[in-house]
Amino acid sequence: MTMGEGDSQMERHGSRASFEHSAKSRQARFQDTSPTISEPARTPVDDPGRRHNYLLALGHAEENLFPGIRGPGGAIDFFAQRNIKWWDGGGEDGGTTPTRNMASSQVACVNFLLPLSGVPGGLMAVLQSLDPDVREVVDIHHEGRHFPVEFEWIGTNESLEGGRRRGAYETSVDAFMIADTTSGHRRAYLLEWKYVERYLSGRPEYKGAGASGQTRRRRYEERFKASFSSFNPVMAPGLDDFLYEPFYQLMRQRLLADRMVHDRELDIDQAKIIVVVPEENWAYRVVSDGATSTSPLLAQRFPQLETVDEIMRTCLKYPESQFDLVPAEVLLEGVQRKLPNETGDWASYWRERYGV
């Protein structure tokens, strides 16, 4: 990349660099004004809570959830029954309740999908907004339960790393659904939800160094190069290119999807990774801003490609069926088109809180 190209990128994307700040400010305003947040929840007394106005007061983390999924039978019970660890961001309660951080992407994912599980046709509208081939959402039968959406999914038996605790240091996706398609496939959708995450600031962390790097190669390289891997060996010849975030996470999620298809977990024969991320969050979407790169190796290999989406698609054998990156408003608009009356309160909450 020449200096002129770098300067051009900086100019085009510099105005988007403050998305994290604006998103957290939106969450602070929502906390202050929404009737869904109680007065005690708005007034944290601890030092972090006073310094960061997008944090709820300690003990009020459940108010981070859409009102319809609070209380008995709601999201907290859903996670507890499945032994799923919540991301708590600061060790507030060991992951037994949601984080009080209102800018949490995990909370955003749960707030979007779990309420729709109780609306007939709600989750099908989500998947059809991503894939018009969807004919019917299929319940996920696992450990004696059946439900149309699961969270922090690691696979049916164990993660790629051999662990079993969902949400705890294992390769997982934020949400997981299955559908039968008009073309005759049983297709899995592995959704990764992003909100304020960014990887362009500072020096990129290379995850291939030292003993931990060797452990990562031992875990993933054979799968990366397997005949059933989705990665194109010509365009993506080496695992090391992907040992930088966000590619490291996306690579592992794609390997999880490949294992599921290869082993026919839950009878699926296809699987697609869907990253849901705001259009404005350029610090996640872009690979390089001219000054730094998320993956220097991939930026050098593909200097003509600007975004994570473009590079991931280029590195896969069948990109249209294996990877997509979309903003949440595509999903919300698809649901509202099909179910405007049934999802009015949910959509209003989402638009007010997340600005979509």
Quick recap of the structure?
With 356 residues, this protein is α/β, with parallel strands linked by helices.
Written overview of the protein:
There is one protein chain. By secondary structure, the protein is an alpha/beta fold. The chain contains 14 helices and eight strands. Strands 1, 4, 5, 6, 7 and 8 form a six-stranded mixed beta sheet that branches. Strands 2-3 form a two-stranded antiparallel ribbon. The protein is globular and about 55 Å long. The two termini are about 35 Å apart.
Give me some keywords for this one.
two-stranded antiparallel ribbon, 6-stranded mixed sheet, 356 residues, globular, alpha/beta
**What distance separates the N and C termini?**
34 Å
What's the helix-strand series?
HHHHHHEEEEEEHHEHHHHEHH
Count of β-strands: 8
User: If you compute it from the alpha carbons, what radius of gyration comes out, rounded to the nearest whole angstrom?
Assistant: 20 Å
Mean pLDDT: 93
Number of helices: 14
Structural class by helix and strand composition: alpha/beta
Give the overall shape, derived from the CA principal axes. Answer: globular
Low-confidence spans: 1-16
Major pleated sheet: 6 strands, mixed
**Level of helix content?**
25-40%
Question: Percent of residues in beta strands?
Answer: 5-15%
Q: Helices, strands, pairings?
A:
Layout: H1 3-13, H2 19-33, H3 47-51, H4 75-81, H5 105-116, H6 122-130, E1 134-138, E2 140-142, E3 145-147, E4 150-153, E5 173-181, E6 186-193, H7 210-225, H8 247-263, E7 270-276, H9 282-285, H10 296-301, H11 308-315, H12 319-322, E8 323-326, H13 328-338, H14 344-354
Parallel strand pairs: 6-7, 7-8
Antiparallel strand pairs: 1-5, 2-3, 4-5, 5-6
